[in-house]
Amino acid sequence: MSDAPKAVVLLSGGLDSMVAAGLAKQAGYNVHALTVDYNQRHRVELAAAARIVQVMELAAHVVLPLDLRQFGGSALTSDIAVPKAGVGDDIPITYVPARNMIFLSLAMGWAEALGARDIFIGVNALDYSGYPDCRPEFISSFVATANLATKAGVEGHGVTIHTPLQHWGKARIAQEAAALGLDPGISWSCYDPTPAGIACGTCDSCRLRRKGFADAGLTDPTPYAA
């Protein structure tokens, strides 16, 4: 696949990003995975990202350190309790300030260096925790800015940001993982793993994942503490 077009995929280690990488590979791209180690409390997802890269035989994997605990402002980057009461209507404390904007900027930088014109991100706006940087409006706005701010964009080789999961719920995402032949057991979703590294089962991310598999009529292979 050396002559295949290159794509940068933001790979957190979660189910959504794994499916996004699978779709990019299925579409014929030479997939370069970017994982950001932002000193998140659920650092076990970094190991999941490495597993996904190995099992899917992706072309390259960069794990980029960026300590967002220096900023804080989120239960994922500060000593704030991860909420366990279920998904509400407000933007939750697990929102990391500007995370997807920061991550897409990094992906844009690597894509330009690689000569890649495609970026994949596994955001979805239907079955999520209320994060503003998962919305279609944000993605289209970022594309416009990126193509104004880069040499490639100015020279007419602008980037396309693919959001294949944008309008899917977790059930559809779980079904797509099965259709692609991916093992969801190697992905990681929990925001608040136990000291033994077991998914808590009650944070927003665990709840959405469990409900998605149940709604899809599929078995979630993740062991949960609760």
Descriptive account of the structure:
With 226 residues, this protein is of the alpha/beta class. The chain contains seven helices and five strands. Helix 2 links the parallel strand 2 (30-37) and strand 3 (60-65). The protein is globular and about 55 Å long. The model has no long low-confidence stretch (mean pLDDT 93).
Secondary-structure topology with pairs:
Layout: E1 6-10, H1 15-26, E2 30-37, H2 44-56, E3 60-65, H3 99-114, E4 118-120, H4 136-149, H5 151-154, E5 160-162, H6 170-179, H7 204-216
Parallel strand pairs: 1-2, 1-4, 2-3, 4-5
What are its keywords?
Rossmann fold, alpha/beta, 226 residues, 5 strands, 5-stranded parallel beta sheet
Short description:
The protein is α/β, with parallel strands linked by helices. The chain is about 35% helix and about 10% strand.
- The beta-strand count equals 5
Which architecture does the CATH hierarchy give at level 2?
3-Layer(aba) Sandwich
Query: What is the strand arrangement across the widest sheet?
Result: 3-2-1-4-5
The biggest beta sheet reads: 5 strands, parallel
Order of helices and strands: EHEHEHEHHEHH
Level-1 CATH class name: Alpha Beta
Integer-rounded radius of gyration: 17 Å
Domain unit count: 1
